[in-house]
Structures are given as C-alpha cells and as structure tokens.
Amino acid sequence: MSTVLGRRLGGELQKLRSAAGMTQLQAAKEISATSTKIVKMESGWVPMRDPDIRVLCDFYGVTDTEFVTRLLDLARLDRERRKAKGWWQQMPIVGGLGEYIAMEEVATRIRTWHPSLIPGLLQTPEYIRALGVTSSWSHPDEIEALVMTRTKRQARLRGEGPLEFHAVLWEAALRNQVGGVEVMRGQLDHLLQMAKLPHVHVQVLPFQAGRHNDVNGSFNIVSFAEPGALDVGYAETVATTQWAEGAEANEAYSRAFAQVSRLSLAPHDSVILIDAISKGM
After folding, report:
1. Domains present along the chain, CATH in parentheses
2. Which of 89, 132, 142, 177 is most buried, by the most CB atoms less than 10 A from its CB?
3. What are the angstrom distances between the C-alpha of 209 and each of 116, 205, 260, 267?
C-alpha cells in the first residue's frame, strides 16, 4: 500500500537518482533487485530497508550524512506506521483522516495556520459539537463520535513527550461565534489555558495586518522524529485532502507559515487580544 511517508521518501530518492543521471535499472542492479522494486520504492508502495537507502545514496553520490540520516528516520517511521494498530482505526468517523492521525501520533511538531476556525487540537467538546451540527454530521451518534475522535487526538498535547504545537490564527477565527456566545467564550478561555503550556505557541494575525496571500486556506506542516526529519504539508479542501509530498511544495508551505507568523502578534500580545475578545463577548 502506498503511504504519505513512503511517497515523501520515494520522491526524495527519485530526485536524487535523476540528479545523478541514473536509470531505475541501474539503481536496481546496485541493490540486487529488479527495476520494478525501484518503481515501487519511488512510488511509496513498499517499506524501504535501511541498507538499500544507504547503498542508493552512496550510488547517487550523496555526501551529506545528515540528509541520509533524515531519510533513514523517515523510512523507520514509515515502517512503524505500516505495522501500527492505532485507536483511530476503530473509529468509523475518521474516514480519510486516518492517515493524517497516524502521522500526528508520531510527529514531534506541528505548525498550523487557520483563518476561520480554532484548530482541532485546541477545540473544546462544545465547540466540536457546534461544528458537527452545522456540517455534514447530522445524527447525534455521529457528532459524539467526532467529539470523541478529536478529544482523543488532543492527548498528544499532554503527558510525556508532548507534541510541540504552533498555531497561527486569523482574528476572524476568534470572532466567529461558533455555537453562540457561551460556547465561543468557553472556547477562547480554553485557548488561553492551552497557550500557557510551554510546548503550545499561539499567535493571532490581527485584522489590522491587512490582506495577505494565505488568508483563504488552512494547512498543517507535520514534522517527525529526530531533529531535521523531513516535513510533510497537509491541507483540506471542500472535496479532498491534499498532501505536499515534494520538497518544493513543502518549502512553499514553510514559507507561507513563516509569512503569517511574522505578520502576527507575538504570543504574549496574542493572549492579550484573545482575552479581550473573550471578555467583550
């Protein structure tokens, strides 16, 4: 089965092979395999062995040992994800989010930009229910399953080795009264409490910052394992989910996040604004 991490890793190996001017057949002979295996490796269809990665990197003339280590980290994570039996696999409401939750479980850091809603990892149950009522989920059981799934994901922000989470929100996300005044005030107060955690960083892009290129769509940048592991970008559209599996696309996400973060208020000033909006409701 093709996986996001496998495709991310395969894409890097394909780029290295092309830069070295090698064919898939030449790469296959180097690891004593068939060209079909190289095709599957570069497409993310099979888990990759560390010896194969090392041999191919050496064959392609890669001398950056830190980069090779990042590829090995990614390969290890992909192998672990393929074998894992996670709690999310038992949740019918997860659907297409299953692969994202699996990656979230092993991530060390997530950066997220949200122009209109509070990020899922920071949402209260009441806020989630209000979203469920106004979305495609209409049956109470479906909405409660959505609440259970999302709150279970939030465990990544607690306990040992918590996820480092950096959220940048447009001011509209704070003023959009999802569920009414009481629900939204409770959500903002919860956001203030979460912002006190040392590994949770919340910034607000105020209206006064003006128009910018990334105001229309939210996205996440997921970082993995050891320092320097390759990032993967993720975005949801009306009809699909999109993964940024190439280096160029992920660099674009990183630049976009850096832009909105740079234009936003500092965390301390963001907290002051959130508190003022909450008290003003």
Report:
1. 4-83 (1.10.260.40), 88-280 (3.30.870)
2. 132
3. 16, 7, 10, 16
